[in-house]
Design a protein that fits this description.
The complex is a heterotrimer of chains A (293), B (275) and C (451). Chain B is mainly α and 275 residues long. Chain B is built from 15 helices and no strands. Helices cover 47% and strands 13% of the residues of chain C. Classes of the chains: A mainly alpha (293), B mainly alpha (275), C alpha+beta (451). The interface between A and B is large, with 102 and 96 residues.
Chain lengths: 293, 275, 451
């Protein structure tokens, strides 16, 4: 058995070697560099000047930093939740054996493919307070919709709605996961008289839990690094309502000659996200089931 | 039976309504690419072009060297695809099915590299590539993917983990090596996940903007996403040309997706298990 | 367990892939003198610049000018910063004069006095003072100003007549401007704006109208020595109060913001060029390019005046534009070649060609005289010659944005102040105090290091 262990270890290391090498070649150096810069005043043009913890200290007292942090927590918590729910619901829908389902699947992937500007234009048309489609639909129910992106109170919910549109990638991941669930399970459950909800509760959800876990982790990381939406559509406005953490970081790094502070922000985010991820991995033992059959 | 029909109908209905909304950006892109310039400036915007102006395509194509940029984009995409397929499943297999000391540490380390915003490592990474002399070449765009992209490793690991351990056990009793298990048993079992990876790699590389902008300086190396800049000015955008080229650029991705999604048919994994 | 991983189809695919792999790309080699030129964006300006480069290469076959297609915004700055840290900067840059000083202050650009003093074509005396000021920092000249766009109040004369106003008598000051703006603005039955008396986007996307008002009241955003941020000067607070009053008069910031949110859909051109707004407070020469493309006939009913000042102030025409810049560390022989090309762009025939196709002007006395003569001799060569004349007249009241080591940050903070004040999150005074505190902290840090 010990020789089996040896074979496993050797094979394990060999198979993981390219990735481990990649970590040393492409990641470690730049990561250490950025960690060092976080303790310096660094404009990129000039040499970095060591200032200890000054960047971290001044960030904690900066208003805009606090605002961006709040915005990002808001967008992440709601955004991740809505991504998982919509992606799962749509994936189950698209997993039905319906005629022309391949066309539907492609359609739901469309916003992930089309150029950003086209998406941005459509969203401005959707979200416009006066003639926007969303408020038009709301008016059927007698609701006078807000001005969404023009209203500081509604800009963040608007961004979350836009995020739902980008679930194409998560749908595809779920679809691939759904292929792993043996049809026999459902057939047996149906014989036992289990309804749709029971089947979802006892078969689909637990068997998809590794996939859900993946989407939970990656989507959390992505939301914490949300950048494109404020960059393309709102420039952090109105009144800082969509100033996200990484959008602020980007401005500091390349607009305001504060690469040092940007690196400090990056590392603070890193520590937060890695803690959250470790917690998620820890709690995943309770609800993620691998190898059910 | 009636209930089943009703469910089917409901599914169609919901899917159709949602599909309509998801199709709008595509529709807007294509219709704008066919509009005359005075139609583009109508307010509120019109949803369909009238008259249709196909010559936008010809004019837009005459402004950029489309086939050059197209083949550049294709080249970078294919090279990336090969890199991902070489390194990601292998690492995922190691991190999920093989038992060795330090495995979880390395997995988590590699996963954690996703958590540092790329904006701050961009310049140090650029310096590394500049030192090797790879600036203004395609290499910095794809070489990273030959060394384990964390997102895809994690994705594939999740799928490898769902395969029952009885599979490898049986193979090891038959005297198979871990490499044999990887190639002949594990890879075929995660085919839907591999397809997913292929789709994502294709999509992300095809549309990538930041990295080509940073690393490609000579016009003859531009990918399509960069070449499109020519239509964007400081005070005005050539929407119809921009959208014409965008349509040409998007079509292959749509086609690839349409062709590959047929692999998402229930039972592929099972048939593997049964065999 | 006999399932093959790859079917025949897949095998063929792998073969094709390997074939593609074998066709390797060779890296680009430089055989002649190459000037790498960055910072050019698309549109009519980009086309005009590329035409100049092509013409130069035809006349000088031993020179290659390699243009890197750029983008607006910070992504391009990031690329330049990356090139600096890798010591691979291009030999020539086309740079917004607004941020020349902050890069020069940190040593990114080469001082150009020596080139300019020995040049027969480019003379500092010939430059308009405002352009020279923007190109300089601490006694050195870091940029050769190339183009400029004067800004003034553009009005839609048809809308004026509709409202019963005389289009030859524009508002005399900003208070009157507010009254006029209200008269032009039209609402639907729910109170939403359908046509607007102001080009609303210009007040919120960047704070330039605030800056123009500031200048007209005789105030500036930093003290004369540049070390103290003065954006909370009472005159600037009054200017921001006026902008808040303007928004509130027209129905509030939110209504205005909602009105402009579809600007993207408007093909990236201003609402003014689409006849949806009646007055453009700081309409620039670029309006001509927009009208030329979208609505050529509109030009006939447009007129341009100096932007109305703060009550009691003097009208000022804000002027922005691009410059040629040579990055620090460029080898001297390459820098000389680059400068030769800059001189070529300033040759009279090239000036006129550039101006006509980009609808921008060259801010040199000799060039403006040349343009005025050409405009009289061949008005048919210019799109909307009467508007060209209006815009050229504005140069005499042209004013620069004072160079500081943080102009980009200054604009971000002022934009946030406009946001905070117009959304009534803060009073104009509080909003500008906040902006001043942020900028002051940065200035202190900068000058502490400089000593």
């Amino acid at each position: 058995m010990s020789s089996f262990k040896k074979v496993q270890t050797t094979a394990g290391i060999i198979c993981a070697l390219p990735s481990i090498l990649g970590f040393f070649i492409f990641v470690l150096g730049p990561a250490i560099a950025s960690a060092y810069f976080s303790f310096t005043r660094y404009t990129v043009i000039e040499q970095p000047e060591f200032i200890g913890l000054e960047n971290y200290r001044s960030l904690i007292f900066e208003d805009l930093f606090k605002v961006s942090f709040y915005n990002t927590i808001y967008l992440t918590s709601l955004g991740v939740l809505s991504t998982i729910i919509t992606a799962l619901a749509l994936a189950i829908l698209l997993n039905q054996k319906l005629k022309g389902i391949s066309i539907y699947r492609t359609v739901f992937f469309v916003p992930s493919i089309t150029p950003l500007v086209a998406n941005a234009v459509i969203w401005t048309l959707f979200l416009n307070g006066k003639y926007g489609l969303i408020n038009y639909v709301l008016s059927w129910f007698g609701i006078n919709g807000p001005a969404w992106l023009a209203d500081p109170r509604w800009a963040k919910p608007a961004l979350i709605m836009m995020g739902i549109w980008g679930v194409g990638q998560s749908i595809v991941i779920y679809l691939a996961g759904l292929q792993g669930i043996p049809l026999e399970f459902y057939e047996a459950a149906e014989v036992d008289g289990a309804g749709i909800i029971a089947r979802f509760r006892y078969i689909t959800w637990p068997l998809l839990s590794p996939t859900t876990f993946f989407i939970l982790i990656t989507s959390t990381i992505n939301h914490f690094q949300m950048f494109v939406q404020p960059y393309v559509m709102t420039q952090g406005g109105p009144a800082d309502a969509t100033m996200t953490y990484v959008y602020l970081l980007y401005n500091k790094a390349f607009g305001w000659f504060k690469m040092g502070e940007a690196c400090a922000m990056a590392w603070m985010l890193f520590i937060l996200v890695i803690t959250l991820t470790m917690l998620q991995f820890y709690f995943s033992k309770k609800w993620v089931h691998y190898e059910l059959f | 039976m009636f209930r089943r029909n009703l469910l089917f109908f409901l599914a169609y209905f919901i899917a159709s309504i949602l599909a309509f909304f998801f199709l709008l950006p595509l529709w807007w892109m294509v219709s704008t690419s066919l509009k005359t310039s005075d139609q583009i400036f109508i307010f509120p915007p019109t949803w369909y072009p009238n008259p249709i102006r196909f010559s936008n395509y010809g004019e837009a194509l005459s402004k950029i060297n489309f086939f050059r940029h197209f083949s550049n984009t294709l080249y970078v995409t294919l090279m990336t695809l090969i890199g991902v397929f070489f390194s990601a499943p292998l690492a995922a297999y190691s991190f999920s099915r093989l038992k060795w000391r330090g495995r979880d540490f390395w997995f988590f380390t590699i996963l954690s590299t996703m958590m540092l915003p790329p904006q701050v490592t961009m310049i140090p990474l650029y310096m590394i590539f500049s030192r090797i002399g790879w600036i203004d070449s395609f290499k910095p765009l794809y070489i990273r993917f030959y060394f384990g992209p964390p997102y895809f490793i994690f994705l594939l690991r999740q799928y490898f983990l769902t395969i029952p351990s009885s599979f490898d056990d049986a193979a090891y009793i038959d005297g198979c090596s871990p490499y044999r298990v990887y190639w002949s048993i594990m890879l075929p079992l995660v085919k839907p996940a591999l397809i997913t990876v292929a789709i994502f790699v294709f999509l992300n590389t095809w549309n990538d903007f930041i990295n080509p902008l940073l690393y490609l300086h000579s016009p003859n190396l531009y990918t399509l996403a960069i070449a499109l800049n020519i239509f964007k000015g400081q005070y005005e955008v050539d929407w119809s040309y921009l959208m014409a080229i965008s349509t040409l650029m998007t079509t292959p991705v749509l086609l690839i997706f349409f062709l590959l999604q047929r692999y998402f048919i229930r039972g592929i994994v099972l048939s593997g298990i049964k065999g | 367990m006999k399932e093959e991983l790859f079917g025949d189809e897949e095998k063929i695919l792998v073969l094709i892939l390997s074939f593609v792999l074998m066709i390797s790309y060779t890296s680009y080699s430089y055989s002649k003198v190459t000037i790498r030129w960055w910072g050019i964006v698309g549109g009519p300006q980009g086309e005009a610049l590329k035409a100049l480069a092509n013409k130069y290469m035809k006349l000088n076959p031993e020179i290659t000018i390699e243009i890197r297609e750029g983008t607006l915004g910070l992504t391009d700055v990031a690329a330049f910063l990356a090139a600096i840290s890798a010591k691979q900067t291009p030999e020539l840059l086309y740079w917004d004069r607004f941020t020349v000083a902050e890069f020069a202050a940190r040593g990114a650009f080469m001082p150009l006095e020596e080139f300019i003093t020995s040049s027969k074509v480019i003379k500092t005396k010939d430059m308009y003072a405002y352009a020279l000021k923007e190109a300089s920092f601490k006694g050195h000249i870091y940029a050769v100003p190339h183009d400029a766009a004067t800004h003034g109040l553009a009005i839609n004369m048809t809308h004026y007549k509709e409202a019963g106003l005389d289009p030859s008598k524009p508002p005399r000051d900003f208070e009157e401007f507010i009254v006029y703006a209200k008269k032009f603005t039209k609402y639907d039955d729910k109170g939403n704006i359908i046509r607007c008396g102001i080009e609303a986007s210009e007040y919120f996307n960047d704070p330039t109208p605030l800056v123009v008002l500031m200048k007209s009241a005789g105030a500036d955003w930093v003290s004369i020595d540049g070390k103290k941020c003065t954006v909370n000067d009472p005159r600037i607070v009054a200017a921001l109060e006026a902008i808040v009053r303007l928004c509130d008069t027209l129905g509030g910031r939110q209504k205005l913001q909602d009105f402009i949110s579809a600007q993207e859909v408007m093909a990236g051109i201003s609402y003014f060029a689409a006849e949806l707004t009646s007055q453009y407070y700081r309409g620039g020469l670029w309006l001509l390019a927009q009208m030329r493309r979208a609505k050529p006939e509109l030009a006939k009913s447009v007129k341009v005046f100096p932007s109305p000042p703060m009550p009691g102030g003097k009208p000022k025409a804000f002027m922005g534009g691009f410059s040629f810049v040579i990055p620090a560390g460029t080898p001297l022989d390459k820098a000389k070649e680059a400068f030769k090309f800059i001189e070529f762009c300033m040759a009279p025939e090239n000036i006129l060609e550039y101006e006509k196709s980009s609808t921008k002007i060259i801010p040199y006395h000799s060039a403006i005289n040349l343009t005025k003569k050409e405009l009289q001799a061949k008005p048919q060569d210019f799109f909307a010659p009467h508007l060209w004349k209006d815009f050229l007249d504005l140069i005499r009241i042209g004013t620069p944005r004072t160079p500081t080591p943080f102009n980009f940050l200054m604009y971000t903070e002022l934009r946030r102040a406009v946001d905070n004040a117009t959304y009534h999150k803060m009073s104009p005074k509080e909003a500008l105090d906040q902006a001043a505190a942020v900028i002051q902290k940065n200035l202190d840090e900068f000058y502490k290091k400089e000593r």
